[in-house]
């Protein structure tokens, strides 16, 4: 592994950054956020604090950590090496301070003592061991300034020291100390994912400036700026008055509620099959942003199974194949017709009222979901699939299949996931509702079964919610729901940024774009020549101010006819999804709407960042 290669690369500046501060101020979490892109889980947030030190050898043993250490700041390629330390005042930190380029000195904005120790203990210690290293002051756990402290204290372990409102420090306190010491000041929150980049980019700047003084011949450092001022944190809006529950997350418009998407599966792209006959339509984006198991499942390479079975030869893979064959037989066997007929009965009888039976609970032509698979051969054998019994106890198989959309009745490519036979439909729906909304109804009947499914799917927060209800502590679930939304918001943003799950059909890639003005017009066209694009632009200019019109060619070659898409009602910052060859009717438009739901969800969470 190229662990220390960075030290030898001529134009890469390797920077040793030591992070110090009192116990439990958030040093390790801050480091993990930068080095491993880690966010705080509900458990870590509520668990009793155990002093930990992030091991420096991560740069040697973990390629991803090493890669994340590399960055470019003010045109300088750097490799940032973070050193965690113990917060215990009596520990010897000489080893960590040695040859450090910059020191990040942390305190917690919810602990005035930790700020006091910055002046009385930490700054003198730093100046003693590394007098030349620049220092950056960081106020951690910034989110606690805006949190409902009563709820936070209630949710923490009984022995944890409660956070008192009068202990929360305003930003001026930190700034005052920083000014007194003559060092820059930043605030961060790992929970709200704020300020982490600010701190380390500016720590790098401080280190590079100091290096420039000593190594004046290094001309590539000439553009390095002094540490910059931090943009203010925009706190989330308080819940609307009279809104009732403290969660404050469901979008106001009923149609935009994620739970609504489960009942009325607009643009579903997944079919979950229970007990071989019950089908539930769902959405990859919702499942995978709230459950890592589903995330891994949907990102799984479905074409891998061939190689695997070849490699494994016998054993469970063969058994799995045999099992698949049995399923096949059953699909083709005498009970096939019976089962096909039973979809309607089973679903509608179970849940839907007489009025709502129609769209989502209908049997679709994807009854052939396993008939058309590659185990059977033939021309539809191109569809990819995988047996999952050895991968997870929750799933039996996954497969791509042409199936009928439950709302538009059009045939389209869907992912069909067969769930383990121990999973019961009623509790499974409650689990799905949690995955869509982060909520669990206290009065849910079969809590034990819900807990069982949560365990199979490794949704441990839901498991905790069940335990809270059983212990008559359901009030604690509000906090879990809040953390669920923060976590999911981050995941949705990540998916939007990376384009994960943005396309349903790999043969027809989709594009996600951003709109920059009210009533502006955004238009995507297949790769046309310059004059054609100019004509389109001129045409649109008749209806919209010309400076608001943008015509962009698609990066992919279109499968369908030339098409242009005009979104009139998009607002600033909207993410739009467009695809070559679609009209405003049909399922792709629905897909577009689903992304609009997601976007409005982000907006509603007030965490929708301005960057796309
Ligand atoms: N609310 C909130 N809690 C945080 C944040 N960062 C860390 N914490 C919590 O603060 C506690 C301490 O975090 P650590 O990162 O382990 O603290 P540390 O400074 O490394 O502590 P020592 O290992 O004892 O030196 C943990 O319970 C974290 O969950 C944050 O940004 N917001």
Automatic annotation (TrEMBL):
InterPro entries: BTB/POZ_dom, P-loop_NTPase, SKP1/BTB/POZ_sf, Small_GTPase, Small_GTPase_Rho. GO terms for cellular component: Cul3-RING ubiquitin ligase complex. Residues 233-242 have a biased composition (Pro residues). One of its GO terms (biological process) is small GTPase-mediated signal transduction. GO terms for molecular function: GTP binding; GTPase activity; ubiquitin-like ligase-substrate adaptor activity. Gene3D superfamilies: P-loop containing nucleotide triphosphate hydrolases, Potassium Channel Kv1.1, Chain A. Keywords: GTP-binding, Nucleotide-binding. It comes from the Eukaryota. Residues 230-258 are annotated as: Disordered. Residues 268-444 form the BTB domain. This is Rho related BTB domain containing 2. It comes from Ficedula albicollis. The lineage of its organism: Eukaryota, Metazoa, Chordata, Craniata, Vertebrata. The gene is RHOBTB2.
